[in-house]
Amino acid sequence: MTLGQIKNLLPTLENVEFALENGTFVPEHFHVTEIGIVTKKFIDCGGTMREEEKVNFQLWDANDFEHRLKPGKLLNIIKLSEEKLGIKDLEIEVEYQSDTIGKYDLDFNGKYFVLKNKMTACLANDACGVPAEKQKVNLSEVKAVQQGGCAPNSGCC
């Protein structure tokens, strides 16, 4: 989800709610403690220089049990961040504390925001030596092609 998408959604919501993919909700008294730009410059395992830029939201579960962040307040925080930091319409990455600080992609399911699990991946598959995943084929299909199109239960086998 991009910053522009969340800005369009917020005015349509009564509450701001976040949940992990497993259905566990972020406590409703959370705070958004940071909105910023995170720039990552790196070299992949194939030697290619890369740069990635994202908008970062940090959620914090405080002991402030009376706190409820309303959509208008979050929208104002976003607008202030855009103004002061020059944030563009980038993908959002969310930091949230569980066992350690986790980084999540952001999605919306029609009711609430979903913190989507992020996965690592090789960006230089051709250079890192990991073999490509073999295509799984049904053995009966291979025999049919080799025998000129004989299909199962056709009586030709």
What does this protein structure show overall?
InterPro entries: DUF6428. It holds the Pfam family DUF6428. With 157 residues, the protein is an alpha/beta fold. The chain has one domain (3-146). It is built from 4 helices and 6 strands, in the order αβββαβββαα. The chain has a 6-stranded mixed beta sheet with strand order 1-6-5-4-3-2, with helices on one face. It is extended and about 75 Å long. The N and C termini lie far apart (53 Å). The model has no long low-confidence stretch (mean pLDDT 88).
Low-confidence stretches: none
Overall average pLDDT: 88
The helicity comes to 10-25%
Distance between the termini: 53 Å
Number of helices: 4
The main sheet comes to: 6 strands, mixed
- Side-by-side strand order of the widest sheet: 1-6-5-4-3-2
Q: Briefly note the structural class of the backbone.
A: alpha/beta
How much beta, percentage-wise? 25-35%
Globally, the shape reads extended
Q: What's the oligomerization state? A: single chain
Number of domains: 1
Structure summary, number of beta strands: 6
N to C succession of SSEs = HEEEHEEEHH
Brief rundown of the structure:
InterPro entries: DUF6428. With 157 residues, the chain is α/β, with parallel strands linked by helices.
SSE blueprint and pairings:
Blueprint: H1 3-9, E1 18-20, E2 30-43, E3 49-61, H2 71-85, E4 92-97, E5 101-108, E6 113-117, H3 125-128, H4 139-146
Parallel strand pairs: 1-6, 3-4
Antiparallel strand pairs: 2-3, 4-5, 5-6
Pfam families: DUF6428
InterPro entries: DUF6428
Which descriptors apply to this entry?
157 residues, alpha/beta, 6-stranded mixed beta sheet, 4 helices, 6 strands, 31% strand
